[in-house]
Amino acid sequence: MAAVNNFVWGPVMLALLMGTGIFLTIRLKFLPWRNLGYALKSVFKKPDPSKKEDKGDISPFQSLMTALAATIGTGNIVGVATAMVLGGPGALVWMWISALFGLSTKYGESVLAVKYRETNAQGEMAGGPMYAMKNGFKIKWIGSILAVLFSVFAVIASFGIGNMTQANSISSSVLNTFGVPTWITGLIITTLALVVLLGGIKSIGKVSGILVPFMAVFYFAAGILVILINIENVPAGVAQIFTMAFSPTAIAGGIGGSIIASMLTAMRWGVARGVFSNEAGLGSAPIAAAAAKTDHPSRQGYINMTGTFFDTLVVCSITGLVIASSGVLGTMDAAGKLISGADLTIMAFESALGPIGGWIVTLGIMLFAFSTILGWEYYGEKSLEYLIKAPIVIKAYRFIYCLVAFVGATTALQIVWDFSDTMNGLMAIPNLISLLVLSNVIAKECFDFQDNILIPEKRALKLKKNK
């Protein structure tokens, strides 16, 4: 299974993910980059009360927070540390590069999700890559096969990468830091998940709208504090990040300790962990985008696109800079192995804050991982709904999903993790095909909407001149 997993997340898949992002960025005339300021403003813009209610289940902000709930997970704490150990400090630069092109990918898949969404029997929105394939492809049978494949992969991945691995991260970090038995943590996770998830997307949206901003700001503030305490190391750390990102030969020493990595290694691990963290191209986040109340696919496309910005360019960067400035990268444990993952991030925070640093990282893992459990339930639910149109099955799925969280919290099943990791990667294949086949549709929606961005800006400029 590990061999299959290595292939799925190997150089070919990463090249496809990056290649699709580069192609869409050029195809859209760099508008996702040029309009990033507009997109960020749109996230925090209050809805106009005079406007009639748009179709959808939750607000655009709640939709983004639901998507961010699923994407801001343990990858932002554990994944960044792993990338910097295996790929050197330069892996962080390749995470940023993959995120920049990931903006266009996330924009494109969210546009398609809103454009081709449907209303189900309960009056809720149902959308995502599977509906884009089903309704957007001219050759219907190809679209239908790809849609079924995507949905099957997403349902399986939801139990593993979106649930069991997250619950296990919470229980093991709480056990290591506070000594709480895993079964107690598992019981708490299951109960809290049941309370939120049985209420459906409106409940998930409300909780995510409060939890995600709180946890992101809390982690960001703690990270900035560590960086400021270690400020004298920041210039050397940043210099090594950029030097090792583009050096064709292996380099070691300095603030990177005994880490040795070439440019290709940095690229491989940076792109892999970047994509794994922000999920651009995997097709998961647009399922949440489809639930948003919006009047234009492109408007929600821009809002959801910022998820990649917040996830990788903000949260992952904080973890990376904390590690780079702390001087702990390259530290060996008692057995002579390089310290990696959550242990390395905890050590980096503790370098400045003492034991409190460890508690902050543990709390971060708890909040990030629990929010991922909530977001991924919705992805799995909507994918299952595409395959089986029976409300009783969806309710059963919600209940079983919560119980599986208990299993994940109390058992470390490596084969399950590898299998779900593979399914998570396989989701990308039909989604990337869909993005390339329907790239003309994405471009049309993008260019049609551009006037909505430019005209208010021109109007504001005119008012400024008249004053």
UniProtKB/TrEMBL annotation:
It comes from the Bacteria. Gene3D superfamilies: Amino acid/polyamine transporter I. This is Sodium:alanine symporter. The lineage of its organism: Bacteria, Bacillati, Bacillota, Clostridia, Eubacteriales. It is found in: Cell membrane. InterPro entries: Na/Ala_symport (IPR001463). The keyword Lyase does not apply. PANTHER family: AGSS FAMILY TRANSPORTER, SODIUM-ALANINE, TRANSCRIPTIONAL REGULATOR, LRP FAMILY. Signal peptide: none annotated. The chain crosses the membrane at residues 6-26, 141-162, 182-201, 208-229, 241-264, 309-332, 352-376, 396-417, 423-443. Keywords: Cell membrane, Membrane, Symport, Transmembrane, Transmembrane helix, Transport. GO terms for molecular function: amino acid:sodium symporter activity. One of its GO terms (cellular component) is plasma membrane. It is a multi-pass membrane protein. It comes from Acetobacterium bakii. Belongs to the alanine or glycine:cation symporter (AGCS) (TC 2.A.25) family.
